[in-house]
Structures are given as structure tokens and as C-alpha cells.
Amino acid sequence: MSAMANKWAHLLTEENLAEQIEQAKACGDAENLTEPRAETVQIKQGAIIIKLRNGAEFRVAHTLIQGLETATVEQLQDFWVSTSGDSIHWESLDVDFSVPGLLAGRFGTKRWMMAENAKAEDKTVNNGAMLNSIAS
């Protein structure tokens, strides 16, 4: 056995692995009780509707979500929800989002969100300038 393998051998025992698996399961169980989880997901009139296990509903237009902006109805319908209800995956688009992330308003990567926010601000400034010129 090499010196490196010997250094880590005490950490990679069957007992340690079993203990780590049990800790991970307990952590997952705790998150399932405290984090938002999808019970059902529907696509209706361009909106993604997530019904949570606690009965609350969240609705967002697919055009606001990175990777889904230009998706067809057929592509939007090609999704699955993880068994834990913590994520949604659009198979044909290779797009994944966590349910807690969507509820927190994370509709894409940081770079994409910054670009989208900049576009929205430009639109707001331009609309404000247009309203000011009409009012004058």
C-alpha cells in the first residue's frame, strides 16, 4: 500500500462509510421536513405552476427562466420532478432547477440574472424617459 493510500485507509472503512450514509440520510430527512418540496408541477398557458407539499402554489412564466425562455409547449411538457420534490428537470432541454431556488427567485446563473436585471432596468429607464417626454 502506498504512503498516500495508507494515510487515508482509516477514513475509508466500511463502518465510516455506513455512518456517513446514515448521517446523509438523516440530513435529507430533516431537509424534507423544513425545505419547500414540490408535490405537483404543471405547465399551463406558458406558466410553470409548482404546488408545494404544504399546499402553497408558486407560478412563474417560463420566459423568465434561463434555458426555458424560447421552449416550445412540447419541450416544456417534457419534465420530471425528483422523487424528493426538490428539483425539476426538463429532459429535452437539459435544464435543471431546484424548487427552493425557483421560490427564491433564482431563475438562472448569476451572470444570466445580472444581464436580465440590466435589461429590465434599461426598459424601466427608457419607459420613464418616454413618460417624461409625453408629460412635458
Question: What is the terminal separation in angstroms?
Answer: 83 Å
Unreliable stretches, pLDDT < 50, 5 or more residues? none
Oligomer category: single chain
Q: Taking all residues together, what is the mean pLDDT? A: 87
Helix content: 40-55%
Radius of gyration: 22 Å
SS elements, strand count:
6
Number of helices: 5
Largest sheet: 3 strands, antiparallel
Q: Report the order of strands and helices.
A: HHEEEHEEEHH
User: Structural class given helices, strands, pairing?
Assistant: alpha+beta
Adjacency order of strands in the biggest sheet? 1-2-3
Fraction of residues in β-strands: 15-25%
Give the CA-based shape. Answer: elongated
Write a concise keyword list for the protein shown above.
136 residues; alpha+beta; three-stranded antiparallel sheet; 5 helices; 21% strand; elongated
Q: What order do the helices and strands come in, and which of them pair?
A:
Layout: H1 3-9, H2 14-34, E1 38-44, E2 47-52, E3 57-61, H3 73-77, E4 79-81, E5 87-90, E6 95-98, H4 99-103, H5 110-135
Antiparallel strand pairs: 1-2, 2-3, 4-5, 5-6
How is this structure best described in words?
The chain is of the alpha+beta class. It is 47% helix and 21% strand. It contains five helices and six strands, in the order H-H-E-E-E-H-E-E-E-H-H. The chain has helices at residues 3-9, 14-34, 73-77, 99-103, 110-135; strands spanning 38-44, 47-52, 57-61, 79-81, 87-90, 95-98. The strands form two sheets. It has a three-stranded antiparallel β-sheet with strand order 1-2-3. Strand 1 (38-44) and strand 2 (47-52) form a beta hairpin. The termini are far apart.
